[in-house]
Amino acid sequence: MKMYPTGEEPAWPAINTKHPSDILVSVVVPTYRRPELLRRCLTELCAQTLDRTRYELVVVDDGLDDATRREVLGWAEAGTRPIIRYLTSPAPRSGPAVARNIGWRAARGGIIAFTDDDCRPLPEWLEAGCAAFADSAVSGAWGRIVVPIPDEPTDYERNTAGLEDAPCATANCFYRKTALHAVGGFDERFTAAWQEDSDLQFALLEARHQLVEVPDAVVVHPVRPASWGISIRQQRNNLFNALLFKKHPALYRLWIQASPPWHYYANAAALLGAAAGWTVESLWLLGPSLMVWTASVGQFCAKRLKSTSRRAAHVAEMVVTSALIPPVAVYWRLRGAIKYRVAFL
């Protein structure tokens, strides 16, 4: 992909004058004990079409892992451009928000690019992303995420593919360093890789920063293998949904979820009704409650199986997890509401 006509140079924005160098953009990559995936990511980042003297790679190790350190230092000691730097979080599992803050604050470039250690940026990624900042009014940009999935994906694979429609996802986004300073960077209360990117996006929008989409800045995000029942464990992320809602209620309803998942609450209420009916030996309460709960689970399961794999193991997983997800999700949503003292349903 050619970004500019032959002989025409892009109007690059000024670099951060606090770091006198030729570095235009710093790529921040948080990583946690995945040196093999990180190696693949660094290989792609070192093959960018952007002049290697104009960017640096800042790897922040959130696992304080010897194998990761050796991997990064091996690349850095090769002595070839781009410059590769190795930083660490203050403690293992500090979280991606902490790692990214460490990375961008130490960066030398006036533009900060974010991607993840399991991603594969295409060669034109940096050049396309930085081109958006030729417009001095632009504070941030997001590129296109490609998630390859099979024709008959699992429910987990299809959900992961939702990243393709996620604006400002940290797998593929760019910000001016001055804009990050203006809003304080990532909120480190988001200790998991969930909603910290939306929180930053919303903070910038509320501060009237201009964010744009750059479709030519492409990152491939392969789906990692997942253990059985991953969808149940993911319900804990509702804690961070509550925090995001507390901070940005209007934007949360506009961008994330227009209304509470009432079908989850109806499912949980029916389950509680069935338990109460069993306890007090009331068929009038037990019977209708079980009918409502069974219908709710069946409808939810059918929805998740639509256009997904019909392998026996996957169908069995969908049946079991469809029964468990609604009450587990309600638990974590209410726990988040209590923790962050917000009316979040």
TrEMBL record:
Family matches, as SUPFAM superfamilies: Nucleotide-diphospho-sugar transferases (SSF53448)
GO terms for MF: glycosyltransferase activity
UniProt keyword list: Glycosyltransferase, Transferase
InterPro entries xrefs: Glyco_trans_2-like, Nucleotide-diphossugar_trans
Signal peptide residue numbers: none
Domain Glycosyltransferase 2-like: residue ranges: 26-159
Origin: domain of life: Bacteria
Similarity comment: Belongs to the glycosyltransferase 2 family.
PANTHER family hit by this protein: GALACTOFURANOSYLTRANSFERASE GLFT2, RHAMNOSYLTRANSFERASE WBBL
Protein name per its UniProtKB record: Glycosyl transferase family 2
Organism annotation: Nitrospira moscoviensis
